[in-house]
Each structure stands twice: as C-alpha cells, then as structure tokens.
Amino acid sequence: MGRGTGGRELALTIHGAVVGLLLLGGVTLIAFGVVDVITARDSVVDLKYTGSSRWNGLLKLGVAAIIVGSVLAAVAVFGCLAVGRGGCSTVFFILFITLQVVLVALLVAVALLAITLATRDAPDGVRTFLSDSWKESVADAEYAVVVCGLEVEFSCRGFYNGQCHGCATADLVSNACTREQRRWCPRCDKQRPAEDFSAKGCFQDTYNDARKYFKPIGIVASVLSAIVVLDMLVVCCV
C-alpha cells in the first residue's frame, strides 16, 4: 500500500514537472512567434516571396513557433485537468492522450525535417523557392538591399555560380549586363570592387547560413517528443 502510494506520488511529481515544462515552453514559443510575425522577421531567409511554395510556410519560424507552442500549452492544460479529474477514467484523460499523440507526431515531423535540412543538400523544392525569392527581391528595391547585404557578407554575386560574372552595379548602370543578368544581379549602393567578387553565386552560402537554425530545432524537438512519450507512460500510473 505504501509503495503504491509512493509510486503514485512520484508519478504525479514527474507529470507535474513535465506539464510545467510544456506550459513554459508553449507560452515562450507563442510569444516568440507572435513577435516574429509582427516584426515580419519570421523566416530563416529574409527575402521577398509571393508564390505558393510549401517551403515558404515551412521555413517561417514565427508561424511554426505559434503552432507548436499552442499545442504544447494545450497539452499542459489538459494534462492538469486529466490528473485533477481522476486520471485514466475521465474524458479529459482521453483528450489529453489524444493531444499528446498529436504533439509527438508534430514534434517528430519537425525533428525529421529540421535534421534533414541541417545535414543534407538543399532539396529541389528549397532550391527553387530560394531562387524565386532571390529574383523577386532583386526586382524590389526594398528587398534588393537585403540581397546586396548577402553579396557583401558572403563575397558572392548573383544566386548561382557565374550568373553575374562581369555584372557589377556599374555595369548595370551602363547597360553592360544582359537581360538575364538583370533578373539576378541587384543594383547596390555599397558594393565591394568587382575584383573582390569571384564567379561564386550566393545560393550555397545563403542556404548554409539558414541551416544554422535547423540542427538545434531538430535536437529540441527530439528531446521534447521523448519527454512527452515518457509523460504518457507516467500518466497511466497516476
């Protein structure tokens, strides 16, 4: 009897800690996501895009944070209700387990996607999305500044290798660039001398810079999914 009571108390303690962690994480993610969306800085690639690629949504950290944070918070709330109302025999428990399953599936999907993007070359869909974003940004003076900043930061020119070879801003002004080059090569107020630019395009460096977000996201999502699975087992003992 004593051991049974002690085991239940331990399970409740573990469950309470997990619920608190999930609630804190959920609220934090929601706040982070809302701020990012409001400030329009919710994408890992700060370029203009008006198309319909699914990668435009998948790479928006602010939106993803709000979705995952909301599910985390909901699981935490229902976790409190499930245990508080009698545990395994209540409707709240069923809803709680359902939400946990959804959360685990979501976290596993996020982890797999993030780790894949962090460890492998860019999928064709990502490459197309980024190239379309680059072209749209070059054509928009507001976003062309961002493109120019990337070129200066990575000592590159254009999106793909060789696209803008021999087409610096001075060449654009003097109409020495081809029509195709004008689609990929921005006019920049500040630009390194042409000899400082190799024929290297900016795609790989831009993608590598974005990848720095993916590995930690994948690790955190993996750890959270394991914690939620552990809590599912613990709750059944309450």
From TrEMBL:
Database matches in Pfam families: Tetraspanin
Keywords in alphabetical order: Membrane, Transmembrane, Transmembrane helix
Protein location: Membrane
GO CC entries: membrane
Transmembrane segments: 12-38, 58-84, 91-115, 217-237
Membrane association type: Multi-pass membrane protein
InterPro entries in the record: Tetraspanin/Peripherin
Protein's recorded name: Tetraspanin
Organismal lineage: Eukaryota, Rhodophyta, Bangiophyceae, Bangiales, Bangiaceae
